[in-house]
Amino acid sequence: MSTPLRLGIAGLGTVGGGVVQLLRRNAEIIAARAGRPIEVVAVSARDRARDRGFGLDGLAWHKDPLALAADPALDAVVELIGGAEGPARALVEGALDAGKPVVTANKALLATHGVALAQRLEARGGILGYEAAVAGGIPAIKALREGLAANRISRVAGILNGTCNYILTEMRQKGLAFETVLREAQALGYAEADPSFDIDGVDAAHKLAILAALAFGRPVDLGALHIEGIRHVSALDIALAGELGYRIKLLGIASRSEAGVTARVHPCMVPADSPMAAVEGVFNAVLAEGDAVGRVVLQGRGAGAGPTASAVVADLIDIARGRTAPLWGAASETLDASPAVPMAAHRGAYYLRLMVVDRPGVIADVTGVLRDAQISLESMLQRGRAPDEAVPVVLVTHECEESAMREALARIAALPAVMEPPAMIRIEGV
Length: 430
Ligand code: HSE
What we know:
Layout: E1 5-10, H1 14-25, H2 27-34, E2 38-44, E3 60-61, H3 66-70, E4 76-79, H4 86-97, E5 102-104, H5 107-124, E6 128-129, H6 140-147, E7 153-159, H7 162-174, H8 178-187, H9 196-199, H10 202-216, E8 226-227, H11 235-243, E9 246-257, E10 260-271, E11 283-290, E12 294-301, H12 305-321, E13 347-357, H13 362-372, E14 377-382, E15 390-397, E16 400-401, H14 402-413, E17 423-427
Parallel strand pairs: 1-2, 1-4, 2-3, 4-5, 5-6, 8-10, 10-17
Antiparallel strand pairs: 7-9, 7-11, 9-10, 11-12, 13-15, 13-16, 13-17, 14-15
Helix pairs in contact: 1-12, 2-12, 4-5, 5-10, 7-8, 13-14
This protein binds L-homoserine.
L-homoserine binds near residues 198, 302 and 303.
C-alpha cells in the first residue's frame, strides 16, 4: 500500500467528529479514490475528555492547535476551529508557511483574508482547500472553479444559510412569527444562542463573497456586499407573498453587468414555482448561470456532520492525489478589477406593504409619491375593511432603481395615513 496522507485536525466539534468518522467508515473507498490511505494521526480540541462517540486512542493530542503546523509527523492540516482571526487564522497561515496543505471550512477567514491568502500561496506555494466553507455538502466550489471553468458566469445565487431557510419555512408552514420560530429553533439546537451571525445575513454574506470571487474571477470583496437579514420579515408578508404567488427566501445574489458586479444578501420574493422556492427547511441551494452551460442548480444540506465532512474529505482526496487549483480559480494578477456596483444602483421589482388608515384618498397619496419617483405599479391589493384601524395595502412595482425606491419609501413612511414603517421586499426571478 502506498504512503498514507497523515492528518492533524484542529477542532473536534460536529464537523471535526464527522470528518474522523467518515474517514474511518469509508476508509477503503476513500483510499481507492485518493490513491493512498488518508489517516488522522493528531488532533487538537478544547476538551480532551468529552464523549464524542468515537475514541481518540492512538492519536497524538495537541493542546495548542498551532502545534499541528509544526508537527513533522503530519502531511496536512484540517482547520475546523472557525473565525476570521485568532487561532484559526494563525493555524492556517502557520501550516501553509510550514509547507503543509490545509483544508478548512472557515468561510469568515476566506471572505475576510482571501486576497492575502491567495498572494501567500502564490508567493510560497501550497494548497488551501475550502469546499466545506460554502453550502456544506454541496460541491459549489468545485462546480464553479472546475466544472464551469469554461463559462462566463453572469449570475450566481443561493440559499446559503440553513438557519434562515428553516425559520422562513416554519413561519410560512405554521403561520408563526419570526421570534416564536427563532426560539423554537434555538431550543432544538438549529439556531445558535447568539443567532445574529445567521439571521442578520453575515454567514450568507461570507459565502456569497466567496462564490462571487470564483464566479467572476475577481478578488474576494466582502466589504462591497449589501447585507440584510430576516429579522424584519413578518408572518403577514409571508402570507401575502403566498397570495401573490411568491415565497420569501433569504438569498445571496451576485450578478455581473457592463457596469460591474453587484453582490447582495437580503430577503427576496421568488416565484412559488421557481427552483429556489422549492428549497425548504435547512437545505441550501446554489444557482449559477453561464454563457455556455445555461442555468445550473445544486441543492443539498448546507451544514451538519456528514455533509460538511463530505466536502472536507473531498478536498483531502484532491490533496492526496496532488490535484491543485489557484485559490480563486486564476492567478491573482489575472483577476478582474471591474468595480463593485453599489446597491443604490440595483434595478428590480419591489413588494411594498403598508399599514394605512382606511379612508378616502390614502391610496392616491401613496401612488402620487410613486408617480413623482417615476415608479410604475404592476398590481395592488387591499385586505379587509376597518375604518378605525390600520389595514394592509400591498403594492407590487415594475422594475425601478433602488435609489428611487428608497426615496419614495421615505416619503411614503412620512404620510400621515401610514401607521407603521413600510415593509419592502425585493422581487427576484431566480
Ligand atoms: N450556520 C450555517 C447555517 C451553517 O445555518 O446554514 C454553517 O455556515
